[in-house]
Amino acid sequence: MDLRSLRYFVAVAEERHIGRAASRLLMTQPPLSRAMRQLEDELGVVLFERTPKGVTLTASGTVLYDETGALLAQAERIRSRVADAAGAATLTVGTVADAVEHVGGRLIPLFRARHPRVNVILHESDLSDPTAGLRAGLVDVAMTRTPFDTSGISTHLLRSVSVGVVMRVNDPLAERTSMASSDLAGRTWVRLPDGTHPVWTAYWTGGAPDTSLPFMRTIQECLQAALWNGTSALAPTDQPLPDGLVVVPFSDRPPSDLVVAWPKAGRSPLVRSFVQVAESGWGT
Asked: pTM value?
């Protein structure tokens, strides 16, 4: 048994429902269900009676719940004493584009629950740096999207998302189920900053940018250019959009991977822990 599985067990036992427990733990339901079945297999007992309305503890589950509270409390005391002995620590997390929403809203709360005494600094890079500060040594770990130059950088895939063309809802192509580059001839595309890596630029722009346009440095600037000026832009198909815009799947691009990344040269215990939090948060 590991402490993470026991924490999962306590959440399910207290919520009496896998779905509610998953929401409490800021994770998806399938990996939580798998974790509970693995725990039952490891112990060789049934911990929950499963019903259409949720779950209830069996006699064995009740014993485990009673014992687990003291165990987790002792583990937290140990963690606290070790952290106090080490002094204050800081983890700087880089983000780019829409990844900041995933980090700030999902992963940072999970990481803080594991490391309440660690200062977490969020560094949001603009679209010119897909490594979100890793390449420049500004951050310890990053959440970003592929493709980018991964030389010297390790990554862990969290999920793949298809890419689409962002356009106004009244665009003649807005009701299409998908489109290709041939459908977009003559379109004006957003312009990424000079010096942006060509692999990143080629993927996230569907054609030659209009050099008379200003540089777009954030995803919100790209979305507003699409809304106000009809400029074409690419974005993940799950990108939240302002009213008046839609995203139509773009068949000429492979999916973009949402990844957690860190320098190959070294991975500190805090970086390892953040990667583990990211893995569990996405059920990988």
From this structure: 0.67
